[in-house]
Amino acid sequence: TRRIEFAPGFHFSTTHVGGAPVPSSLFSLDWFANPWARLEFSGAFFSGKNVAHFGATRQGFSFLPDGRAIPVHSHGGWGQFTFIATPRLSFNVYGGQHDDRDADISPGGISRNMAGAANLMYRFAPNVIVSF
Q1: I want to staple 43 with a disulfide (CB 3.0 to 4.6 A). Which of 57, 79, 81, 105 is the partner?
Q2: pTM for the full model?
Q3: Rounded to 5°, angle at Cα 103 from 99 and 106
């Protein structure tokens, strides 16, 4: 009924745009902790550059006035607390953000994206869940 899990991740690649290479690298850490039978805490953290191809905000790189492409440095993550009221009913609160380094983004770019929410989930059957 109790456990702690950690999972690091690494990524290295190159994006080719306009005939120029733009490096991409990322470090991530996922976690799950169940300190008491009715409480769970899960989430993830990431930090890197040129991470848009992972489903992040749209700008993975920017063009400088001289035409060179540079990677956008980013970091962020999310966390979720789950309270398990009964084997069928749970309450969840979660939030997260993606933050790009302002100096790397072009004018009009998105510098930060944040989200948060809460819900309850009821399990009618093993594969039938209703959430509000």
Answers
A1: 79
A2: 0.82
A3: 90
